[in-house]
Design brief:
Number of helices of chain A: 16
Mean pLDDT of chain C: 89
Helix content of chain A: 25-40%
Distance between the termini of chain C: 31 Å
Chains: A alpha/beta (365), B alpha+beta (75), C alpha+beta (337)
CATH architecture of the largest domain in chain C: Alpha-Beta Complex
Distance between the termini of chain A: 29 Å
Number of helices of chain C: 7
Order of helices and strands of chain A: HEHHEHHEHEHEHEHEHHEHEHEEHHH
Mean pLDDT of chain A: 93
Structural class of chain A: alpha/beta
CATH superfamily of the largest domain in chain C: PurM-like C-terminal domain
Radius of gyration of chain A: 21 Å
Number of domains of chain C: 2
Low-confidence stretches of chain A: none
Shape of chain C: globular
Number of domains of chain A: 3
Oligomer: heterotrimer
Shape of chain A: globular
Radius of gyration of chain C: 20 Å
Largest sheet of chain C: 7 strands, mixed
Number of strands of chain C: 15
Strand order of the largest sheet of chain C: 10-12-8-13-11-14-15
Strand order of the largest sheet of chain A: 4-3-5-6-11-10
CATH topology of the largest domain in chain A: Rossmann fold
CATH topology of the largest domain in chain C: Phosphoribosyl-aminoimidazole Synthetase, Chain A, domain 2
Helix content of chain C: 10-25%
Chain lengths: 365, 75, 337
């Protein structure tokens, strides 16, 4: 598999991208949706190489920690206040997102081990099993890659009649913000790189509206540098031939139909809801919530949490614009100055998939 | 935990729990979403769950394409 | 709820201040250096050169867990201090040993640690000659904390001012093994790997001070990228390292990728990075590789004046790209996707 990082292979791919871009009226601007793609592009120093070849990559909203509004964190902080026996379990990045009330890490006192970092919702479930006298709330955030595992965890909790476990869910689906971005016309894109592992779950069909309604090219990409370049190449091909489709350039992992078992489980446990995205506002049918049937494991219902949709970011934070693709992180006035990894002013500088942190860590000389 | 790399299944029990191996590191994984997966298969694991099985043929095709590109001459 | 404090003026010590990154350095400058006037302290040396040819250093050890594959807190406490002396140009001779013990610590654990200290000291050629023992109430310390100070005889003075373009950057072996061994031993992750700490004395580097070495540091907290960027910052040149030359063992490569951590930022406890003058680099590698601890010694890069800007640490990536490496700023957290 080392061919996917081989210098000669990548040089060959870049050359062919250069030749194609010339025929497509360069510079060709594309959006890589997924934060992990942004990471690959910058970690391997591909951004300037692609620019030289005539392709400009813009990062998109594919960072679930980034697009979750502060309202969720504030609800979690509110829940934990005055509840010394409750454990809040969540993914690492989530604990450091700064809000007007502080981050989970600073706002929830460490004594009594009340805030736990987990790598899988299963760990949170296990915590509930092992600590029957304590309430465990799993703050679950993710796109379709993570959503099936959260859904399965809810199903297991229900089957076991666990009375001390619930999920505060911030579940987002990828296709609707793409539509919102295209409809807003704010960024002039000529193609998309679709997320690799989200697509492993949802397949190719949910993206069909992009070529069909908007005439835009796109390709599903894997996460090795060669995967990204293959997908860029495919998008250029579609532009040249004026035949936009949803190409699958990650065919070793992504099937057209996605993962039917995962999709069926999501359908069983969850249903669509309208959701507020950081930076993108209210997008209809863009989030998922736990069905009423499983309401006893829905932390919002169980603990009567109120999510204030109007809650806003820290002053000056422009994460929303970064997520919409209209602002490249280095152009934010706070970037690298007041907003740095050790003192972040927004989630894009916290999450390992956040565009700002990626740009900062993998800075160009 | 997001593994953006394919790992090999080393063990799998009837409850669909098992372990995968990546360059000698072992990770526990739940295979509820991959009915057909069996030891020896390569899978993508995310947040403790295997979400997709790697298709050997497709992988080989992509690899051949990449090898061609490595040796292609610039015209 | 009171609003969050401005990040520039934290009222309480946070964990990040101890992680070895930029926040810690700022903290040291603002609070520690500001309290003490000795000119010897100005550059925050790990080991200081005193008159009468003596080098002096100190370090505290708070590793968790106490015992991990490849070592324990005792072995760390000896080698960490020994290594600070070696990389400052001194032959380590004597150690002091202060133990802070938590009430309830099993005596068997303490005996194991002491035995470890004894054998590590013997292997490193140093004697433990003085020390102290304190016991605090249960809950007021985490099992064992150790402080060791070391003195040694100055053999050479590091000369970063003599570093020139073309000089070689060498690492003595595989990176990241100590950090990963400790991380995995904590059982925080549902993954397991055969990784052993690289904790070891670096005495075998002493001859290099007379064989072209201009500067050395042991690759501890913050990892190679942090240590090297601290050097680069002081130079009127840039430092360029090649990603494909970085020595990494297979298990570290795998575990790091899985955890989403960058091996360039993982601490070691028995590896060093050296700058050796260009003409002497080949011989230095041969000399290092003759020693069992230096078998994987590699030239990973060079001091540059044609790429990047003065003070920058640059990485030539596997893909043929170039990027700047920043010092570690805060704790590494595995990702969610």
């Amino acid at each position: 598999m080392k061919e996917f990082r081989d210098r000669k292979v990548l040089a060959g791919l870049l050359r062919s991208i250069g030749r194609r871009a010339e025929q497509a009226s360069p510079p060709v601007r594309m959006m890589e949706v997924c934060g992990t793609h942004t990471m690959t592009i910058h970690r391997f120093g591909l951004q300037p190489l692609l620019e030289k070849a005539g392709v400009i990559m813009t990062s998109g909203p594919g960072c679930p920690v980034c697009i979750t509004p502060d309202a969720y964190h504030e609800a979690a902080i509110g829940l934990m206040a005055g509840r010394p026996d409750t454990i809040l379990a969540t993914f690492g990045d989530m604990t450091r997102v700064p809000t007007r009330q502080g981050s989970l890490q600073t706002a929830i006192p460490a004594s009594g081990s009340r805030l736990k970092i987990v790598y899988s919702p299963q760990e949170a479930l296990e915590m509930a099993r092992q600590n029957p006298s304590r309430e465990v709330v799993f703050f679950g955030v993710g796109f379709e890659t993570t959503i099936p595992s959260i859904a399965l965890t809810v199903k297991q909790a229900a089957r076991e009649h666990l009375s001390n476990f619930s999920v505060l869910s911030a579940l987002w689906i990828i296709p609707p913000p793409l539509r919102a971005i295209l409809e807003s016309g704010e960024v002039r894109l000529r193609g998309f790189l679709y997320p690799g592992h989200v697509s492993a779950i949802i397949g190719l069909r949910p993206y069909a509206f992009v070529p069909e309604e908007f005439g835009l090219a796109g390709a599903v990409a894997g996460f090795e540098p060669a995967d990204v370049l293959l997908a860029v190449s495919s998008v250029l091909d579609q532009i040249i031939r004026q035949k936009p489709v949803v190409a699958n350039e990650y065919s070793r992992v992504v099937r057209e139909e996605g993962n039917p078992r995962a999709l069926a489980l999501m359908e069983e446990i969850l249903e669509l809801k309208d959701a507020h995205w950081r930076g993108l506002g209210l997008i209809p049918r863009s989030g998922l919530k736990i069905r009423d049937l499983f309401g006893a494991w829905d932390a919002e219902k169980k603990h009567r949490l109120k999510l204030d949709p109007g809650s806003s970011e820290l002053p000056g934070c422009r994460c929303g614009e970064v997520l919409r693709g209209v602002l490249a992180p280095p152009l934010c006035g706070l970037f690298g100055r007041k907003c740095r990894p050790e003192s972040p002013l927004g989630p894009c500088m916290v999450s390992l998939e956040g565009a700002c942190l990626v740009y900062y860590k993998y800075s160009q000389p | 935990m997001c593994l953006a790399v394919p790992a090999k299944i080393v063990s799998l029990d009837e409850s669909r729990q098992g372990e995968v191996d990546y360059l000698g590191t072992r990770v526990k994984a739940n295979f509820a979403f991959l009915e057909e997966a069996k030891p020896g298969d390569w899978v993508i694991v995310h947040a403790g769950f295997a979400i997709s099985r790697m298709d050997e043929e497709e992988a080989q095709e992509t690899l051949s394409l990449l090898r061609e590109l490595a040796s292609a001459q610039d015209t | 709820m009171s609003p969050p404090l401005s990040p520039e003026q934290p009222a309480r010590i946070s964990l990040e201040l101890g992680s070895g990154g930029r926040l810690m350095r700022e903290f040291l400058h603002r609070h520690i250096l500001a309290s003490f006037r000795s000119p010897l302290l100005r550059d925050l040396p790990d080991a200081v050169h005193l008159e009468a040819g003596i080098a002096f250093t100190t370090d505290a050890y708070v590793v968790d867990p106490l015992f991990f594959p490849g070592g324990d807190i005792g072995r760390l406490a000896v080698n960490g201090t020994v290594n600070d002396l070696v990389v400052s140009g001194a032959r380590p001779q004597f150690l002091s040993l202060s133990l802070i013990l938590e009430e309830g610590l099993p005596l068997a654990d303490l005996k194991r640690i002491l035995a470890s200290i004894r054998s590590a000291a013997a292997a490193a050629g140093v004697e433990v000659v003085t020390g102290d023992t304190k016991v605090v109430r249960r809950g007021q310390a985490d099992k064992v904390f150790i402080v060791t100070s070391g003195v040694g005889k100055i053999l050479a003075k590091p000369a970063p001012a003599k570093v020139k373009p073309g000089d070689a950057v060498i690492v003595t072996g595989n990176l990241g093994e100590h950090s990963l061994a400790v991380l995995l031993a904590r059982g925080d992750f549902s993954l397991s790997a055969k990784v052993k700490s690289d904790c070891a004395p670096l005495r075998f580097l002493l001859p290099l001070w007379k064989q072209g070495a201009l500067w050395m540091r042991d690759i501890t907290r913050g990892g190679l990228a942090t240590i090297l960027s601290e050097l680069a910052e002081r130079l009127p040149y840039s430092v360029l390292i090649e990603e494909e030359n970085i020595p990494l063992s297979r298990p570290v490569r795998g575990a790091a990728e899985l955890l989403g951590v960058d091996p360039l930022y993982l601490a070691c406890e028995g590896r060093a990075v050296l700058v050796v003058s260009a003409k002497k680099a080949k011989a230095a590698i041969r000399s290092l590789r003759r020693h069992p601890q230096g078998r994987r010694a590699t030239v990973i890069g060079r001091v540059e004046n044609k790429v990047g800007k003065p003070g920058e640490l640059l990485l030539a990536t596997l893909a043929g790209g170039l990027r700047r490496l920043e010092p570690l700023t805060s704790e590494l957290l595995p990702r969610i996707c």
